[in-house]
Amino acid sequence: MDDALTIAGKRYSSRLLVGTGKYRDFAQTREAVLASGAQIVTVAIRRTNIGQDPNAPSLLDALPPSEFTYLPNTAGCYSAEDAVRTLRLARELLDDHRLVKLEVLGDPHTLYPNMPETLQAARTLVKEGFEVMVYCSDDPIQAKMLEDIGCVAVMPLASLIGSGMGVLNPWNVQLVRDAVKLPLLLDAGVGTASDAAIAMELGCDGVLMNTAIALAQDPVRMAAAMKKGVEAGREAFLAGRMPRKFYTASPSSPTTGLIGR
Question: Tens digit of pLDDT for each residue in 171-191?
């Protein structure tokens, strides 16, 4: 915990957050989450049963809130009003739970965030006492606006949700990193462990993913790989990479003090 991730005043040893959708069943969900080492799990309130249907299997049984921090999200919401209503429901279902992930989508084709609606919803939720982590565009100006509203973390997309295209715009991620002091977690578009490592090397505080694990040929093994990718990327960031030296070679071994000279 010497290098813990702190969100809304709580410390986490894992910097990998995982979603709970798209798995074969809740048993596989649990197995993959355990392999990932994640302590925060996000759940789509509109798509996953956490008590809405008392007669159906509940995710709460597979991943008890006593073992994991739940991050209810507003996947499938296209307006601020809809998103706020959904998270109020989540607060009721999870006994006044306040840590949430806000996402307001712009269209069903790209699932790109609608930032005007996102900002509007964030203002309402913060005023109501929610601790809001926000899926957003990789725009440093709007990320700073979310910080000023009082959100607890910003979560710019790496590429489109579920695309597996990796970090398409590392320069903008770096601009967002420089613009805000809040925890920055890369969200959406991660495809494999190297994508997670790149995100962490850019200075992200964490990575959230779902599809990259759930739709892998071996989700549990991919979850373990993602854990290692996040850890390796974080270590590389803290170590500080060597400077790039374009057009200049530097031998790995010293050229002075050679044996026999």
Answer: 999 999 999 999 999 999 999
**Tell me: the pLDDT tens digits for 43-77?**
988 778 877 778 788 888 889 999 999 999 999 99
pLDDT tens digits, residue range 15-48?
999 999 999 999 999 999 999 999 999 998 877 8
Given the residues 22, 101, 181, 245, select the one marked as catalytic: 101
Q: Is 10 a catalytic residue?
A: no
pTM of the model: 0.90
SS3 track for the chain: CCCCEEECCEEECCCEEEECCCCCCHHHHHHHHHHHCCCEEEEECCCCCCCCCCCCCCHHHHCCCCCCEEEEECCCCCCHHHHHHHHHHHHHHCCCCCEEEECCECCCCCCCECHHHHHHHHHHHHHCCCEEEEEECCCHHHHHHHHHHCCCEEEEECCCCCCCCCCCCHHHHHHHHHHCCCCEEEECCCCCHHHHHHHHHCCCCEEEECHHHHCCCCHHHHHHHHHHHHHHHHHHHHHCCCCCCCCCCCCCCCCCCCCCC
